[in-house]
Specification:
This protein is an alpha/beta fold. It is built from three helices and eight strands, in the order αβββαβββαββ. The chain has a domain at about 55-150: Rossmann fold (3-Layer(aba) Sandwich). The chain has helices spanning about 15-30, 80-95, 120-130; strands at about 40-45, 50-60, 65-70, 105-110, 110-115, 120, 135-140, 150. A six-stranded mixed β-sheet has the order 1-2-3-4-7-8, sandwiched between helices. The protein has a two-stranded antiparallel ribbon with strand order 5-6. Strand 7 and strand 8 (about 150) form a beta hairpin. The protein starts with 14 loop residues before the first helix and ends with a strand. About 25% of the residues are buried.
C-alpha cells in the first residue's frame, strides 16, 4: 500500500516542484519588468574576514539585484507555519550580510488568512520587523493572475 505524502500544495507533485514553479513565475514577472535574472546567483558573504559563497534563488550584476523566493502558506488550520518563518528569518540574515549596493527582493506567495485578516507576508512583517534589514523589498505574488505588489 502506498503511503500518502504531505505536500506543500494539495495539487503539487512535490514541495520541490511547487517551489520551482513559483520561482519560474517570479523570474518571468521580473523579465516582463525588464530585469533579466540569473538562476542560483552566488555572492561572497561572511560576518568577518572569512567569506563563503551563498546562492540566492536569482540575481544579476547589472543592475545589482538579489532575489529570494518563498512559496509558503498558512497551515490548513490557518495557524502560523513556524518552521517556515524560521526559513524566512534565515533569508533576512543572508540579506543583512549583503552589500547595500544590491537591491534585495524577497518574493513570496500571497496567502491570505480569513481568520487573521492578513497575508502571511503581512504577518511576518508585523511579527519579525526587527529582523528585516533596511532596503529589503517584500513582494507578494498572486498565484492566480501572476501579478505582484510591493508591500514593503
Amino acid at each position: 500500500m502506498m503511503q500518502a505524502t504531505n505536500h506543500q500544495r494539495k495539487d503539487a507533485v512535490s514541495n520541490t516542484a511547487a517551489g520551482k514553479e513559483f520561482e519560474t513565475s517570479i523570474k518571468k514577472f521580473w523579465l516582463n519588468q525588464g530585469i533579466e535574472l540569473s538562476d542560483s546567483y552566488s555572492v561572497l558573504l561572511g560576518v568577518s574576514t572569512k567569506k563563503k559563497n551563498h546562492r540566492f534563488d536569482f540575481g544579476c550584476s547589472n543592475p545589482k539585484i538579489l532575489v529570494e523566493c518563498k512559496s509558503h502558506r498558512w497551515t490548513e488550520g490557518n495557524n502560523t507555519p513556524s518552521a517556515k518563518m524560521t526559513v524566512w528569518n534565515e533569508a533576512m540574515y543572508y540579506f543583512s550580510l549583503c552589500s547595500n549596493e544590491y537591491r534585495k527582493l524577497f518574493c513570496v506567495l500571497r496567502d491570505y488568512s480569513e481568520k487573521r485578516k492578513m497575508t502571511l507576508a503581512e504577518y511576518y512583517i508585523n511579527t519579525y520587523e526587527h529582523l528585516i534589514p533596511q532596503k529589503v523589498e517584500f513582494w507578494e505574488f498572486c498565484a492566480h493572475d501572476r501579478e505582484a505588489i510591493k508591500i514593503l
